Amino acid sequence: MTESENPAGQGGGSRETAVDAASDTHLTGPGSACKDLSDAHAAELAASAIPLDVAEAHGVYTAVTRDGLPEWVRWLDDVHGDAIYPVLCYPMTEPDGSETGQVKPAAGSVVDADGNVMKYVSPVGDKSPQLVVVREVENPVGVIIAEGVKQALALAAHAPPGWAIYRICGITGWVRNGVPTKYLRVVRGLDVVIVPDADAATKRAVYDGAAMLGEACEVRRAMSVKFVRVAGFGNTGIDDVLGGCADDDERGELILDLLDAASDKPAKSQPKALTAAQRREKEADKAATRLAAQRRLDERPVIHVGEDRAVVIDRLDEVLHERFDGRSLFRHGDALGHLTVEAKGPVVAVASQGVFADLVAKAAITVEGDGRDDGNGCRHAHAWPDKNSLAAVESRYRTYVPLDGVSAVPLVREDGSVVTESGYDVATRHYVHLSDELAGLSVPEHPSAAEVEAARSLLVEDLFGDFLLKDRADVAHAVAALITPLVRSLLPTSPGFAVNGLQAGVGKGLLLHVLSTVVAGVNPSLAMLPGNEDEMRKSLTALLHSGATSVFFDETSEIDSAVLNGFITAESWSDRRLGVTERIEMPNKSVVVFAGNNIAIIGDAARRMVQIRLHTNNPNPESRTGFRHSDLKVWVADHRCELLAACLTLIRAWFDAGRPVPSHAARMGSFERWQDVLSGILSVAGIDGLLEGWFEQRAAADTEGQHWSAHLRWLADHYGDDEFTARTAASDLCFDEDAEYPPGLENLSEKSSSAARELGKAWSKQADRWRPNGLRIVRTAEGQGGRMKWRIEEFDTAVGGPAATTAQVPAPVERATPAPKMPAEAGRPMPVITDLDGGVA
Q1: Where do the record's region annotations for Disordered lie (predicted)?
Q2: What is d(CA 102, CA 110) in angstroms, rounded to the nearest whole number?
Q3: How far apart are CA 708 and CA 725, in angstroms?
């Protein structure tokens, strides 16, 4: 990816800047005994498949003060102040031992002269990175040259040990004044594999830069030169691809596959070069952006911060609205949200103290008069508004444009029109950021039958045709998972989607990758469900806070979370803001997708999930051949624009047909609007099967529900219409070898003193709830001694309610003959259950 460098000659000063780093661990800078990473930076590296030990071995650390920065980049603190922190620092060494490096300041904090956000900053001139050593090997089998700092570190962690690895910072970072770096001598006599980012397939400059590097390696007598073609779009890097793997074994296997498949060209075909007119237009756009940025600085109003505070606060509020409202500042989650567009798309975060101060500096010149007249009026010294004034301005977040989320795909408005341009959309209250490959996306306003059929065929056959989808319902659900994010702003709620594989190798990871690529524009981050409810709550709140509208969880074995259940059915989400006691409320426009093999969908989660089942009778499904596309990931990335256009064509066809809603055999509670819209769209497209067999699927996936159904059947067979107590049932369960226990109470026989109470509590949570087998347990009356009595009822479809009787009462069970199931100990009589059931209602 292209990485900007700092202006030359900026540095100096000795001021130490204090930064609010409450969310970070203790951090130190270079020269300390230990160079630490903040939790956030460690997580960022982990998402790029860079383990902590690899980062530490390469000296990567987080700086939170000026003194912690490398000397060559301390000018950032002088120019931009606290806004740059925390800074992720990458020390580097060239083959001759000379030191260089790169740093990554806080997102959006550093802007170049053209108004472009600088993601990375490097030294300039001869000190800038050229061909940085990542892994030196004695007698290497070959050399890998990777574009990008994280890409190279990810390869260092997972590439075969015989390969030497070097990094270039930008596809032309190895050139100095038009001359290839002298360090390329390291490739002499060796096989070379160059790893550019995925945009080598779409950007001529990247393709040409990689090809020129290959030619330069050949000049330095490399044995051979090949290129790894990274599957993806935009500037997806090898670190993104490796981060999307399930584990280190898969990462190592993938690198071997990529090395074996390396080609003699950076991409299948050379991207078209810009025409002379397009180059002139691009240069004109850059010049206009640069001029506009300069004018904004020149035209900043002067605000005297020593005036009446009410006047100062009003004026600051006014200039911030004029400059940033609806562009980078929004009301999001009952707070002032700051939006930045990163390489992987837009991200929203609460405007921190440093970011807010930076925005104020860009919007106004704040001064404080000294009262002396120098002949040209009063002289003024630059001064910050006081903290209370800044806090008062920030407290007016409710007056900013509301933001419900960010989207990497076009959204459909209530009237059926489609958002096809990047920026804030008032109708959907979303910020839409469309990547370069979506330029020119067009959707027919009145799709013809032929256009609808072509769109249906592209999705059902070309995209999903090779997946082992179990039946037509699963095909319909896969298409629905693509369409739902496009219409999500029209829906109050959306069910979760569970990509449920029968076994390893059926393609659930590939299907998750396809869905994420199309609807989110990135490889799935492959987050796993948090292990406890508190972490689940924090994770979901953070996701909404970032503006995410598509959320992916991989390697899911069980979905059983009250927090997650509430999140999926919530139109808005209320939680405590992370790090403070204040509560926030955010609109919930997310679509959540899970993937795993034989996922157990427990209890209430089952009615919130739409399954996409992958099924096979082949014991080795990964050995299949004869696919439509030799590399589906590459095909999807190359055809993302067409796939989204196909989805939008089906949506437009539904609107054009008058938005018909098919009749439903049964309703999906809490998601009725979703069911109406998606069934209508798919029906017009000729895709049948939505929610077909959903109740049966739901029951099959709910293992806990199956145990409850079996337990209620045992009670019905054992007691018929008779009333019973928990004490009686607990005793009978212990004496019946064929008894079915409630889930979680399989060891009930060992709880001699509390069995009745445990059983009564479990029944209380299930009281009056019908199970799929048509049975439920109900309280009837309080018996002798305060014991609660229970009875089993059976649903009668003829009357739409409980039947008059459920089952015939069997003959009394002889309890003396069977051996007890309780553990026996020598010399100790079998315990007698004496606990009362009373009060367990």
Answers
A1: 1-32, 266-286, 819-841
A2: 14
A3: 17
Domain interval for residue 2: 1-129
Rg of the Cα atoms in the chain? 32
The reply to whether 368 falls in a domain is yes
List beta partners, residue 431.
406, 424
Residues 608 and 719 in one domain: no
Q: Kindly state whether residue 248 falls inside one of the protein's structural domains.
A: no
- Measured between alpha carbons, how far is 490 from 416 in angstroms, rounded to an integer? 10
Residues 553 and 525 sit within 8 Å (Cβ to Cβ): no
Secondary structure percentages of the chain, helix, strand, coil, to 5: 40, 20, 45
User: Does 830 score more than 50 pLDDT?
Assistant: no
In total, the chain counts a number of residues equal to 841
Q: Distance between alpha carbon 744 and the CA centroid of its chain, in Å?
A: 33
> How sure is the predictor about 827, in pLDDT bands with cuts at 50, 70 and 90?
very low
User: What Cα–Cα distance (Å) separates residue 406 from each residue in 323, 340, 544, 815?
Assistant: 20, 11, 10, 65
Total number of domains constituting the chain: 4
Q: What is the DSSP string of 763-775?
A: HHHHTTPPPTTSE
Are residues 655 and 791 located together in one domain of the fold? no
Q: How far apart are CA 811 and CA 659, in angstroms?
A: 60
The rounded mean pLDDT for the chain is 83
Is residue 79 situated within a structural domain? yes
Q: What is the arrangement of strands in the sheet containing 365-373, beginning at the earlier edge strand?
A: 302-304, 365-373, 378-382
DSSP notation for 730-758: HHHHHH-TT--PPTT-TTGGG-TTTHHHH
Where a domain ends, among 642, 671, 700?
A: 700
Copy the structure tokens of residue 303.
Answer: 């605000």
Please name which of 428, 526, 507, 427 lies closest in space to residue 463, comparing C-alpha atoms.
Answer: 507
What type of residue sits at position 99? E
Q: Are 659 and 490 in contact (CB under 8 A)?
A: no
pLDDT confidence of 36, banded at 50, 70, 90? confident
Residue ending a domain, among 112, 129, 146, is: 129
Residue 417: CB partners within 8 Å, gap ≥ 6?
none
Q: Smallest Cα–Cα separation from 321: which of 383, 385, 398?
A: 398
Same domain, 321 and 375: yes
What is the Cα 157 distance to its own chain's centre?
Answer: 23
Q: What integer pLDDT is reported at residue 198 of this predicted model? A: 87
- State the DSSP code for 272: P
* 570 and 518 co-located in one domain: yes
Same domain, 503 and 589: yes
Q: What is the pLDDT of residue 378?
A: 52
CA 678 – CA 662 distance, rounded (Å):
10
Q: How confident is the model at residue 25, as a pLDDT? A: 32
C-beta neighbour count of 745 within 10 angstroms: 18
Which tokens hold the place of 748?
């009930």
Per-residue pLDDT, 829: 44
pLDDT at 298 over 70: no
Q: Is the pLDDT of residue 34 over 90?
A: no
Looking at the structure, do residues 761 and 777 belong to the same domain, yes or no? yes
- Give residue 294's pLDDT: 56
- 523-575 tens-digit pLDDT: 655 567 887 888 888 888 888 888 888 888 888 888 989 999 999 999 988 88
Best mean pLDDT range from 29-38, 340-349, 661-670? 661-670
Tokens of 245: 């793997």
Question: Does 455 share its domain with 570?
Answer: yes
CB contact set of 161 (below 8 Å; sequence gap of 6+): 137
> What is the DSSP pairing of strand 191-195 with strand 142-147?
parallel
What does the pLDDT read at residue 23? 34
Evaluate whether residue 210 is within a structural domain. Answer: no
pLDDT tens digits for 676-690? 999 999 999 999 999
Residue type, 314: D
pTM above 0.85, yes or no: no
694/707 same-domain check = no
Give the model's pLDDT for residue 287.
65
- Strands, E assignment, 328-385: 329-331, 336-342, 345-350, 365-373, 378-382
